[in-house]
Design brief:
single chain, mainly alpha, about 70% helix, about 0% strand
């Protein structure tokens, strides 16, 4: 169970690190994220900026809690905060989509892809992973993974899954039908 807990720590940590960095890194990133929070129409417009910064702070807290060495209670707290955030994100996205809001997903930086059902499913799957991670930490107790090969596999596997989650929209876009090239007229 220690290896599973380690792998899920890397998965959730990588996802939240990429999310937080993409929302504040780069020119105009924070402004775009604040606009997307405002466009969701779930909070009053003047509360969008504080809510956006609270989200980024909570995402950073998840990363720190999951990366911190020490008792399993710290990791369980990280998984708990991650689970609450992910479930909240899923609910917010579902509510906004139901209202017909088509704001772009700013989960991992600048994207033109509007929020949709796949983002809800992604966040619910990550919520389940956070729950599994907390359970694995609790079951493993004080036992730590000690085989170097197992540790490498758990860390690399978690980071790869995290990278897959972060780039999921881009990967799915590769399989979308391509329309006609702009400027080409039919029949010529």
């Amino acid at each position: 169970m220690g290896y599973l807990a380690l792998g899920i720590r890397c998965l959730i940590g990588a996802v939240f690190l990429a999310s937080a960095v993409s929302k504040v890194g780069g020119r105009g990133a924070s402004g775009r994220f604040v606009s997307s929070v405002r466009d969701l129409r779930l909070v009053p417009p003047r509360a969008a900026r504080p809510v956006a910064w609270c989200v980024v702070a909570a995402e950073c807290a998840v990363c720190l809690l999951l990366a911190a060495p020490g008792p399993g209670a710290v990791a369980v707290a990280g998984f708990a905060v991650a689970g609450v955030l992910l479930a909240g994100f899923a609910a917010a996205i579902a509510l906004s989509v139901r209202r017909g809001v088509r704001t772009p997903c700013r989960c991992f930086g600048a994207s033109t892809r509007p929020l949709g059902l796949r983002h809800v499913v992604r966040n619910l799957a990550l919520t389940a992973a956070a729950g599994a991670g907390a359970a694995a930490v609790l079951v493993a107790g004080a036992a730590r993974p000690d085989a170097p090969g197992g540790v490498v596999v758990a860390v690399v596997g978690g980071l790869l899954l995290g990278g897959l989650v972060v780039t999921l929209d881009d990967i799915l876009d590769l399989f979308r039908p391509v329309g006609p090239a702009p400027g080409l007229a039919r029949g010529r």
